[in-house]
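Worked problem 6 (solution included).
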Amino acid sequence: MIEVTNVQHQFRIGKKGSERVVPVLHDIDMRVEEGEIVTIVGRSGSGKSTLLNLISGYIRPTSGRIVVGGRDVTALSEGEWADFRLRHFGFVFQSFQLIPSMTAFENVELPLVLQGVGERERKRRAQAIMERVGLESLGSHYPGELSGGQQQRVGIARALITEPPVILADEPTGSLDSENERSLLAMIRELNRERSITFLIITHDDQVASIGHRTLTLRDGRMESGYSYATGGYSL
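Solution. The predicted structure is:
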């Protein structure tokens, strides 16, 4: 489903002519199989979010190759990436990233608007997803009127609305209390089990990491051995 091969990334900082190169990721190799939940852990600054941004096409690797669903996406143009991203990925963020001037329902159906789906079909699918995440009675509320847990559920519904094969999540429970975190993790397990959705989750939380079939560790921009909860052992 996702293959990352020999990926390196570095940032250039400073003014042109006096730039300084800052290496972030070194020779990253990883593979995420269809239907897996894979969690990536590491300290702040280890390169976790950079790796997620590379996989989702928001930044390009300095070198290496990234393949998603059998397609080499390394050199896609911005326009090609925008279309690919809309059809293949759902995103869940720590800060929710909801549009405050739109209702919960409007936030959820927005990806379908961008895909050009007709209004009648959009409404039907958005209502079904809102019911799936337990927010059918809150569709007319604005994000500021919802609790943190409810806002994250709206984010989950928005990520699911296009029925993507992969959901990428960056610290999805970072803004939630313990009860809402447990609820969200249970939902991720259910969605993975019922729909075989592939999840790639960035986290620093051991509780979140434990829901993965495998957990990979980034340390100083290098991928270390991963722990498999299925086999109870470590592998490269």
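Discussion: Helices lie at 48-55, 78-88, 104-115, 119-132, 148-160, 178-195, 206-209.
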